[in-house]
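Handout, page 2. Input:
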Amino acid sequence: MALRDEFTAALKTAMLAKDAARVSALRLVTAKLKDVDIAARPKGVDKVPDEEIIGMLRSMVKSRRESVEMYRQGNREELAAREEAEIAVIETFLPQQMDDAATAAAVDAAVGETGAASIKDMGKVMAALKAKHAASLDMAKVGPLVKAKLGA
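Output:
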């Protein structure tokens, strides 16, 4: 089932269950998806593929995590809790992330495959990781691991 169809089915289910928080979060996701689709039209793409939708979802989670930190600093726990609830809904549509051991193994394999020897080769390693594991790796967390592996 495509992600778009999953959003629609989840929204219908949440509406029938009268789960207002989930309905709200799913409406935010579908609105953002429409924005992404509209932005892709000049490129000749009517609907973006699932890979771009996953990237969109990750950026939504990242911005909400930043908001949670700011709300907590401002002593606004109710807003932080709402953002965390939205994160939980959005993450149900993201693929399972690799654990730390699997991530380290993937980094080691990518360094071996690319023959990277110094920090100058970091781009090659990151490209190899993105090509193989884009859906299951958080590239922001992998960067420091690659740097450490390459001795920077």
